[in-house]
């Protein structure tokens, strides 16, 4: 009939599309309301029937399951074992607590020694650690334009948005970007990247503290950088809590152990992906921060506190295992996740959670705090409830289950700020990864995507 009418099939389809285009009065939302359920059903069918089918190099479950467990990245500095948890160049958290130099007068791991270990694979000497602290202090002041930018932002803008914007604006002074523009050899990329990474880590405390002071303590002066202090010592000073030695020690530990969690975690992987385009470290890390700001990742530490406060409000003074159980079920039945529980890789309690709990266990005033007790009591009940609920592969706490409550105890009660502290920390691992990606000349990341129809065609042939 087409031949009789003298038009080709392509022209025929174009005419049909044109007629549909004219006839349809649907909105884009209405069309999506129709199309999405169809695609969802197709995906469900693939998941149920063909998860284990091979697509060549990978299985269907890898493509539709968030690439969980897929060995597709190169990263030396840390390994995450599902049962044992994190090791940094082979060292567990307790090993690091024994071997890495603390701050003068302190006991906990500090950011400088963790960064040194991550970057070089070696445990630094005390002199090497102190030298890095001094370099950070000397480079820690913010440029004027970044101060002005942060000061101009609405105080209601989420602190993580402010942090990402500030980090991106620091790229004004990127040595890597300037050197690339001048024209450098690939073999020189890593040295300029390293300088940017050190400058960025040095400036993060002043940036993060300025956000805190602007939003929560406006109009009060911010302490200057003390050249004799470590990075976190200065950060806590600028936040306005420098008088509190225990909080300073807690934040030293917190920032060191949140530093890296294998290469594929969402924030570090984002920095790696963006950095693979040769975007400079500031832009790459700003992107990572926006991944960290998601509630399934770093924002969970804010969510845990919010959830706990709601639980406390609802239960009142009579906190029992039964009451907590009821609240957990209420959360699950309303379709929400229990924040601070579960993990993409871990299948045991997170050793970072254990390390933070141990920090509390030596301090009676922390053990007596109702918020900290609630974390412990929830830990006694939640794994059982989550197992019974039967969805999560890991019913145990991750680091976010415990990290906020100690901050809360010490008076840092503004939990919308908590992910910013995580953001100061994750720079250690994500930026180390960038330096090594440039040193090893790793290429642009560019995985292949497949449509649902293409996957169906492949699996149906098998
Ligand atoms: N509460 C309720 N349900 C949960 C759950 C939790 N804590 N953890 C996982 N599940 C659900 C998932 O939503 C998923 O449900 P669907 O099948 O309906 O999609 C199912 O259990 C299977 O998930 P999983 O394979 O066990 O976990 P994922 O690898 O998909 O997700 C994580 C991991 C962390 C996103 C998830 O456990 C979660 O949402 N936890 C709560 C948020 C949180 O604490 N995030 C912080 C993680 C640490 C960090 O990055 O900082």
Automatic annotation (TrEMBL):
The active site is at 297, 343, 400. The keyword Transferase applies. GO terms for cellular component: mitochondrial matrix. One of its GO terms (molecular function) is acyltransferase activity, acyl groups converted into alkyl on transfer. The keyword Transferase applies. Keywords: Mitochondrion, Transferase, Transit peptide. Signal peptide: none annotated. Transmembrane segments: none annotated. Pfam families: Citrate_synt (PF00285). Its main location: mitochondrion. This is Citrate synthase. It comes from Cristinia sonorae. The lineage of its organism: Eukaryota, Fungi, Dikarya, Basidiomycota, Agaricomycotina.
């Amino acid at each position: 009939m087409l031949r009789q009418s003298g038009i080709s099939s392509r022209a025929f389809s174009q005419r049909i599309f044109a007629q549909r285009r004219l006839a349809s009065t649907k909105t884009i939302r209405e069309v999506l309301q129709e199309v999405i359920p169809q695609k969802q059903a197709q995906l469900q069918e693939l998941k149920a029937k063909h998860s284990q089918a091979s697509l060549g190099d990978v299985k269907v479950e890898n493509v539709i399951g968030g690439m969980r467990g897929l060995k597709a990245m190169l990263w030396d500095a840390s390994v995450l074992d599902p049962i044992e948890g994190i090791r940094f160049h082979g060292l567990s958290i307790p090993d690091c607590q024994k071997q890495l130099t603390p701050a003068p007068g302190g006991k906990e791991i500090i950011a400088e020694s963790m960064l040194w270990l991550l970057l070089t694979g070696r445990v630094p000497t005390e002199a090497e650690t102190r030298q890095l602290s001094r370099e950070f202090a000397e480079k820690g002041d913010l440029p004027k334009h970044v101060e002005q930018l942060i000061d101009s932002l609405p105080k209601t803008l989420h602190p993580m948005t402010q942090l990402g914007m500030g980090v991106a604006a620091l790229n004004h002074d990127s040595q890597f970007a300037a050197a690339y523009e001048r024209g450098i050899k690939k073999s020189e990329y890593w040295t300029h990247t390293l300088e940017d990474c050190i400058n960025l880590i040095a400036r993060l405390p002043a940036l993060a503290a300025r956000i805190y002071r602007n939003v929560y303590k406006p109009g009060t002066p911010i302490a200057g950088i003390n050249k004799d202090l470590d990075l976190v010592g200065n950060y806590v000073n600028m936040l306005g809590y420098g008088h509190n030695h225990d909080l300073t020690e807690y934040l030293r530990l917190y920032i060191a152990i949140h530093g890296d969690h294998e290469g594929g975690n969402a924030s570090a992987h984002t920095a790696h992906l963006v950095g693979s385009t040769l975007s400079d470290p500031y832009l790459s890390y700003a992107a990572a921060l926006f991944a960290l700001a998601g509630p399934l990742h770093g924002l969970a530490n804010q969510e845990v506190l919010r959830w706990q406060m709601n639980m406390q409000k609802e239960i009142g003074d009579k906190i029992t295992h039964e009451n907590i159980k009821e609240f957990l079920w209420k959360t699950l039945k309303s379709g929400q996740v229990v924040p601070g529980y579960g993990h993409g890789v871990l299948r045991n309690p997170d050793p970072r959670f254990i390390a933070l709990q141990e920090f509390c266990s030596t301090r009676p005033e922390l053990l007596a705090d109702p918020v900290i007790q609630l974390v412990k009591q929830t830990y006694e009940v939640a794994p059982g409830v989550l197992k019974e609920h039967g969805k999560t592969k890991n019913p145990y706490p991750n680091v976010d289950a415990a990290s906020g409550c100690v901050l809360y105890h010490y008076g840092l009660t503004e939990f919308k700020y908590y992910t910013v502290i995580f953001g100061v920390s994750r720079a250690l691992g994500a930026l180390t990864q960038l330096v090594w990606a440039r040193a090893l000349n790793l290429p642009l990341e560019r995985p292949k995507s497949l449509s649902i129809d293409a996957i169906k065609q492949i699996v149906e042939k098998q």
